[in-house]
Write a structure and sequence with these properties.
Layout lengths: L7 H10 L6 H23 L3
InterPro entries: DUF7557
Pfam family, one: DUF7557
């Protein structure tokens, strides 16, 4: 599995999002899903013109 290194500010921001000591993997996966959903919504919204 690849490893990534995060700077202190990024870790602090992730810690602020954690609920009940949630794993970082779960947080990052959720953020990616939100990003992809918003991107899809924006893409489809542009097709309505």
């Amino acid at each position: 599995m690849p490893q990534i290194h995060l700077d202190e500010e990024t870790v602090e921001r992730l810690d602020a999002l954690r609920v009940d000591d949630e794993e970082y993997d779960a947080i990052v996966t959720e953020l990616i899903n939100i990003y992809e959903a918003e991107e899809l919504t924006l893409f489809r919204g542009g097709d309505l013109e």
